[in-house]
């Protein structure tokens, strides 16, 4: 293996080690060469799939390859993912669909197929776990990896292992990923975002301060639009300004966030890759094509979403003790309501009945564009849903739900419907929604 020298890198396409500092690979002629003074000693990585949902759809339909693709709901929904062609036209994730179509009217809009995306995400995750047991998922399509100590296993340094992984994902799964390699989690994630798609960026410890100094404060994890506005009102726009400030002063101004600003602005992040990160909640939500206000319109949607949440809980062998209702009004104001149960639940009926109680207080004539239901305070399902001595009918409903689950498992999820959703149209059968 070459010594840790800037002129000794490798080709990201054929993985051949380079003997000099030429602009192209001496083996395959590719210009995608990776060189860095710390290339062979860094081991913390962040992997992020490129425009994941859109990439999967393009993989499955080659006719979409050169077309702008938007994954999202109807005209009233928001953009879940936009391919890079659509992004050139100004389309961004979380943008209202009507604005996205104004920016790119020729875009092909596809409703999310979460079951397919979860399946592909698991394939990528499995390939990550073949590299190292230290994989910390952040979402369906991204994760941190700690490759420290794996060189003996793979016979290669972490940088080459990551490059080989990226090539394998592209060939075997048919999508692309971007990688960031650094000495800490913060900069590994920053690095993976810098040269998408098909990027591989390295940020070493020696260059961290100089690299961060000219960057905007929004690059720091936890600094959103609101806090960035607060910092700007104090005259702070760049990370370099934070680097020149005293930790005590930052903490006096911004509390615990001040300490984070101090350390991350200097590239100091001692968080470890934690493979046992557990979900904090399981939820499902949908955005309506037209605003809904009445119980008659909202209840079927609530039932359908409750069944989605229940199915995910049962599949993961977990239960939740707190039911959370989420509503967004036509003026984009968010309402969240929650209720803690006496025992954890994984039953659609119990989630739905609790959600109905919460919803009844919100159907006051307000028109809503979004409805969601979920559970938090998660635990395993060993003690979930004990018999209710007061509500004797709950046991019968639980048995009926179990029978429905068996039929759906055998004949498909649409084999059986309750009276709440049967014949109630599209809103009662929303497309698969995102988990928290």
Description of the molecule:
Mg(2+) binds at residues 48, 141. Monomer. Its EC number is 2.7.7.7. Its main location: cytoplasm. This protein is of the alpha+beta class. The chain has 3 domains: 36-203, 2-Layer Sandwich (Alpha-Beta Plaits); 209-265, DNA polymerase, domain 1; 281-428, Dna Ligase, domain 1, CATH 3.30.1490.100. The chain has helices at residues 52-60, 84-88, 97-103, 114-129, 151-154, 158-172, 185-194, 208-212, 225-233, 239-243, 247-254, 256-265, 295-316, 348-360, 392-411, and strands at 10-11, 33-34, 44-49, 69-72, 79-82, 108-110, 135-139, 142-146, 177-182, 200-202, 281-292, 318-329, 334-345, 368-380. The strands form 4 sheets. A 5-stranded mixed sheet has the order 7-8-3-9-10. It has a 4-stranded antiparallel sheet with strand order 11-14-12-13, with helices on one face. A 3-stranded mixed sheet has the order 5-4-6. Helix 11 (247-254) packs across helix 12 and helix 13 (295-316) packs antiparallel against helix 14 (348-360). The longest helix has 22 residues, at 295-316.
What percent of residues adopt helix (DSSP H or I)? 25-40%
Per DSSP, what share of the residues sits in E-state strands of 2 or more residues?
15-25%
Query: Any idea of the CATH topology of the largest domain?
Result: Alpha-Beta Plaits
Query: How far is the first residue's CA from the last residue's CA?
Result: 43 Å
Q: Which structural class is indicated by helix and strand composition?
A: alpha+beta
Biggest sheet layout: 5 strands, mixed
Arithmetic mean pLDDT: 88
Radius of gyration: 25 Å
CATH superfamily grouping of the largest domain: Reverse transcriptase/Diguanylate cyclase domain
Number of spatially distinct domains: 3
List the helices and strands in order: EEEHEEHHEHEEHHEHEHHHHHEHEEHEH
Tally of separate helices: 15
Can you tell me the CATH architecture of the largest domain? Answer: 2-Layer Sandwich
Which CATH C-level class of the largest domain is it? Alpha Beta
Strand sequence of the main sheet, in spatial order?
Answer: 7-8-3-9-10
Poorly predicted runs of 5 or more residues: 431-436
């Amino acid at each position: 293996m070459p010594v840790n020298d800037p002129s000794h890198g490798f080709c990201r396409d054929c993985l051949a080690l380079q003997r000099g500092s030429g602009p192209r690979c001496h083996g395959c002629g590719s210009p995608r060469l990776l060189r860095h003074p710390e290339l062979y000693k860094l081991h913390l990585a962040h992997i992020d799939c490129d425009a994941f949902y859109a990439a999967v759809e393009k993989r499955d339909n080659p006719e979409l390859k050169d077309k702008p693709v938007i994954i999202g709901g109807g005209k009233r929904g928001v953009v879940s993912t936009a391919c890079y062609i659509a992004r050139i036209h100004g389309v961004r994730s979380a943008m209202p669909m009507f604005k996205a179509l104004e920016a790119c009217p020729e875009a092909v809009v596809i409703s999310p197929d979460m079951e397919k995306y979860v399946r592909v995400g698991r394939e990528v995750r499995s390939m990550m776990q073949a590299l190292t047991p230290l994989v910390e998922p952040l979402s369906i399509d991204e994760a941190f990896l700690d490759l420290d100590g794996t060189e003996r296993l793979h016979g290669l340094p972490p940088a080459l292992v990551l490059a080989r992984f990226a090539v394998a994902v592209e060939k075997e799964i048919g999508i692309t990923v971007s990688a960031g390699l650094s000495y800490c989690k913060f900069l590994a994630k920053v690095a993976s975002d810098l040269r998408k798609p098909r990027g591989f960026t390295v940020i070493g410890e020696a260059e961290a301060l100089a690299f961060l100094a000219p960057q905007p404060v929004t690059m720091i994890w936890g600094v959103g639009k609101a806090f960035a506005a607060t910092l700007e009102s104090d005259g702070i726009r760049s990370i370099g300004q934070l680097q020149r400030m005293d930790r005590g002063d930052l903490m006096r101004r911004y509390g615990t966030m001040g300490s984070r600003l101090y350390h991350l602005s200097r590239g100091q992040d001692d968080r470890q890759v934690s493979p046992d990160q557990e979900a904090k909640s399981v939820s499902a939500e949908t955005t309506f094509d037209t605003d809904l206000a009445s119980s008659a319109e909202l209840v079927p949607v609530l039932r359908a979403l409750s069944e989605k949440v229940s199915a995910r809980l049962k599949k993961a062998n977990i239960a939740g003790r707190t039911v959370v209702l989420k509503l967004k009004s036509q003026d984009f104001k968010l309402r969240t309501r929650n209720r803690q149960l006496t025992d954890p639940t994984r039953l659609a009926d119990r989630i739905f009945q609790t959600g109905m109680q919460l919803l009844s207080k919100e159907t006051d004539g307000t028109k809503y564009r979004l409805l969601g239901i979920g559970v938090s305070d998660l635990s395993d399902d060993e003690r979930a849903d004990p018999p209710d001595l007061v509500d004797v009918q709950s046991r019968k409903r639980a048995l009926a739900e179990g029978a429905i689950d068996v039929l759906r498992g055998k004949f498909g999820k649409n084999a059986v419907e309750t009276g709440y959703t049967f014949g109630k149209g599209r809103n009662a059968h929303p497309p698969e929604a995102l988990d928290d």
